[in-house]
Amino acid sequence: MTRDEYIELQEAFLMAHPKKRKSGVVSYNPPKKAKKPKKIKRPKKKKRETVNKNYLSALKKNKRGLTSKATKPEQAFKEFLNILDIDYSFQRIFTVSKRKGYIVDFYLKDYLTVVEIDGSNHAEEDQELKDDNRTQDLLNLPYIRRVTRFDNDEVLNMNINDVKKELAIRLCPFVEDLL
Questions:
Q1: Under CATH, which architecture does the 53-178 domain have?
Q2: pTM confidence score
Q3: Predicted confidence (pLDDT) at residue 155 exceeds the cutoff of 80
């Protein structure tokens, strides 16, 4: 703003407010800028628990080995899922905590379901306890609603109709009443 413009503003102000004139001294206070609204204090976000990078890389390395050396029952179940046109992830990694994660055999994203194909060693008592703990950890994740298990022999002895029926029953238990 130039000096002449400033004087014009002062004169216009004095004309509008004749009582503001003080003993020959013109006092003009330009209008104040509007105050900025105070920032709303939001609670700080909780820091996401980051997974130990060494642990995660070890899981990924292990996954590569499992993917390339899939067992016959896993390959057969993969074929059944392909025939049934069910979208799945094979050997998917789920991290449960900073130092704990699991590689599951199949994850059916549309059904929020984990499918495990268990070998003969899963019949042992200590392995059953580990499987139960693993299942509970996985069920605590928001994107897993159920964990279902098939035995190796069960998968190898199934045909496509058996798989369709079993998946229908395990994914929607009330379907069993309709069959």
A1: 3-Layer(aba) Sandwich (3.40)
A2: 0.62
A3: yes
